[in-house]
UniProtKB/TrEMBL annotation, chain A:
Belongs to the binding-protein-dependent transport system permease family. This is Sorbitol ABC transporter membrane protein /mannitol ABC transporter membrane protein. The chain crosses the membrane at residues 12-33, 71-96, 108-129, 141-163, 184-209, 240-261. GO terms for biological process: transmembrane transport. One of its GO terms (cellular component) is plasma membrane. It is a multi-pass membrane protein. It is found in: Cell membrane. It comes from Antarctobacter heliothermus. Keywords: Cell membrane, Membrane, Transmembrane, Transmembrane helix, Transport.
Automatic annotation (TrEMBL), chain B:
Belongs to the binding-protein-dependent transport system permease family. It holds the Pfam family BPD_transp_1. GO terms for cellular component: plasma membrane. CDD domains: TM_PBP2. It comes from the Bacteria. It is found in: Cell membrane. This is Sorbitol ABC transporter membrane protein /mannitol ABC transporter membrane protein.
Length: 276, 288
């Protein structure tokens, strides 16, 4: 919207918006600041904002005491693995629905979406039981599969909306030139689909990274990702604000950065293409 | 355009995704349905046989049921009102010309990317703690008695935490919708002397109608099943036991599978009612 406004009005807008923005961001900022304090400074009265002795000690201690790296590794495997597996399964499905639509395509898409609406708690025990039977409780593979399944509808949907935007004429032209299905996918479609696939990967890594129902209920110690690691800090064990902050910052930093890159995809992915 | 050959290829390509989701949906669902009609207590004898509708009746008549429904409604309703009202205001603010718009947008949407356990713990300890929390310091500074938020104002506190997480989502979607508004309409209204308030009610709000509906429906589905925020902060104490949390306790804590499964069936029905409306809107959008 390029409406002409006075500089004064723009200045007021700017000040107001920055104020609100910082207020909303403040809990995260405060967590980052606290993570660099000593435990004593973290609970000092009155609180200190910037003028304290900055220290990296908490980050070292969190790693040492709680084996942070193992949880991080679990998170990476679970979020990354479930997303990649999901995309591998979803790409052919989305491709065929976008380019070879049948009268039932719409129903299939909506049905897939409906599986996403199933409240997790409704199937908690069956999944728990199946996990015990399969020996998947507290394993990476089990969580990779469950998170892949809960995000599969979103992955199919996102890919579908991206593929839909690829003009069909190009494919027809390729077919006229005698391209086989394989080379059509490999040389025509793939290069055009890469940006959409990349955004889908990004958003789904974020969703899987932050998933906190199945990761809390299906892991104990071995395969626990960062969501469970942070939850273990909820038991009261004295003064631990600075360490809690350091652990929190480490858990959210990678995803915060990825999230900022995926703003646009977020809207498309989470509204199933209804708002673009 | 599609040949018989490409049709069958397409069906083949769709098969894995459809098959997996079918299994994922049908197997656990039928198990839940089955268990809900059994007297099933793994720690006290296992499967003790057919129970008819006993579990369904007991779940609804237990003293914890109606409070949990109320709690769920209050949390979902409270968060929806806060996120939609402030989301509209924020989206309108972010749509104004200003310096550093990109940075402000990043600041505003950041909470959405914070994992639920982190935001719950950070709010619980560093803001809402009655002795060391920032709110306690703030209250003392103004000479007021610090509040132990999560026990005295537990529902409000959880609504606050969850709203903080979901406000970015509402804002981002509403901002996307506002940006698609034809600005010449607003300019014409401005020239014709329409006051800001009437411009809002007659042009902006109707334009946002669909986006608001989508925000409400999607958030409702996610909010009905919030878990980590309660698990970490109150563990269901102080009147914060939602329907989801109640079922979780029945199933995993007291290991009454039959009862929990009956509750699960209720939760599924509830979610499906909301989902039906959402699907209708999304489905309409598919035709265009």
């Amino acid at each position: 919207m390029a409406r002409a406004v006075t500089t004064q009005r723009k200045a007021i807008n700017t000040a107001f918006a920055w104020g609100v923005g910082l207020l909303i961001f403040f809990p995260i900022l405060w967590t980052i600041l606290t993570s660099f304090k000593t435990e004593a400074q973290a609970i000092s009265d009155p609180p200190v904002f910037l003028f304290f002795d900055w220290t990296l000690e908490n980050y070292a201690v969190v790693q040492e005491r709680s084996d942070y790296m193992r949880f991080l590794w679990n998170s990476i495997i679970i979020a990354g693995g479930s997303t990649i597996l999901g995309v591998i399964i979803a790409v052919p499905a989305a491709w065929s629905m976008a380019f070879v639509p049948s009268p039932r395509t719409k129903d299939i898409l909506l049905w897939m979406l409906s599986t996403k609406m199933l409240p997790a708690v409704g199937v908690l025990y069956p999944i728990y039981l199946l996990f015990i039977k399969l020996g998947w409780l507290d394993t990476q593979i089990g969580l990779v599969i469950v998170l892949m399944l809960i995000n599969l509808p979103i992955i199919v949907w996102m890919l579908y909306t991206y593929f839909k935007e690829i003009p069909g004429e190009i494919l027809e032209a390729a077919r006229m030139d005698g391209a086989t299905l394989k080379s059509e996918i490999l040389y025509v479609l793939t290069p055009m689909a890469v940006p959409g696939i990349a955004s889908t990967l990004l958003l789904n890594v974020i969703l899987a990274w932050n998933e906190a129902f199945w990761t809390l209920n299906l892991t104990a110690a071995k395969a626990a990702p960062l969501t469970a690691f942070i939850a273990s800090y909820s038991s009261p064990e004295g003064l631990f604000y600075a360490k809690l902050s350091a652990a929190s910052v480490m858990a959210i930093a990678p995803i915060l950065i990825m999230g900022w890159f995926s703003q646009k995809q977020l809207v498309r992915g989470l509204t199933f293409g209804a708002v673009k | 355009m599609a040949t018989q050959h490409s049709r069958s290829a397409a069906r083949l390509m769709m098969a894995p995704a459809v098959f997996l989701l079918l299994v994922w949906m049908l197997v656990p669902l039928s198990m839940t349905l089955w268990f809900s009609f059994r007297k099933y207590l793994p720690l006290r004898g296992g499967d003790l046989g057919w129970a008819g509708f006993d579990n369904y009746v007991r779940f609804v008549t237990s003293s914890a049921f109606w409070p949990s429904v109320m709690t769920t409604l209050i949390i979902v309703g409270g968060v929806l009102i806060i996120t939609v009202v402030f989301g509209v205001l924020l989206a309108m603010l972010l749509d104004q010309p200003m310096w550093g718009q990109g940075v402000v947008r990043i600041l505003v949407i950041a909470p959405f990317f914070v994992m639920p356990t982190v935001s719950a713990l950070v709010w619980k300890n560093m803001f809402m703690d009655p002795t060391n929390g920032l709110f306690a310091h703030l209250w003392k500074f103004f000479g007021a008695e610090p509040v132990s938020w999560l026990s005295q104002a537990s529902l409000e506190s959880i609504i606050m935490i969850v709203s903080w997480q979901w406000l970015p989502f509402a804002t981002l979607i509403l901002l996307t919708a506002i940006q698609s508004l034809d600005s010449s309409q607003l300019e014409a209204a401005e020239i014709d002397g329409a006051k800001p308030v009437s411009r809002f009610y007659h042009i902006i709000l109707p334009h946002l109608g669909r986006a608001i509906t989508i925000v409400v429906l999607i958030q409702t589905i996610f909010l009905l099943s919030i878990f980590a925020e309660i698990f970490v902060t109150t563990g269901g104490a102080f009147g914060t036991k939602t329907l989801t949390y109640l079922i979780f306790q029945r199933v995993l804590e007291s290991q009454n599978i039959g009862l929990g499964s009956a509750g699960g069936v209720y939760a599924i029905i509830l979610a499906n009612i909301v989902a039906l409306f959402l699907m209708r809107i999304v489905g309409k959008n598919l035709d265009t």
